[in-house]
Specification:
single chain; mainly alpha; 2 helices; about 65% helix; elongated
Length: about 80
């Protein structure tokens, strides 16, 4: 039955994996920073917030990218093909 069907290409979502993990890591950090600023009655400028978000996202991106690189180095696949 599979011989009649042309081979399909799997779409790789690795490019999306790191940004999604980055957002998951950055969102709680941003919430914590905003709550701390509000709780301590400090004023946060747009520049401080932008710099903090940029640094937090860069760190999260690097962590996610290193995990992707490690998975590729050790030959792990997201969903192995059960037919082969």
């Amino acid at each position: 039955m599979n011989a009649d069907r042309p081979p399909t290409r799997r779409i790789s979502l690795d490019w999306l994996r790191a940004p999604l993990l980055g957002c998951v890591v950055v969102a709680p950090l941003v919430l914590l920073a905003v709550l701390l600023r509000w709780w301590l009655d400090w004023q946060i400028s747009a520049v401080q917030l932008a710099l903090g978000l940029t640094v937090a996202y860069a760190v999260a991106w690097r962590i996610a990218q290193s995990r992707i690189d490690r998975d590729e180095r050790f030959g792990r696949e997201e969903d192995p093909d059960p037919d082969s």
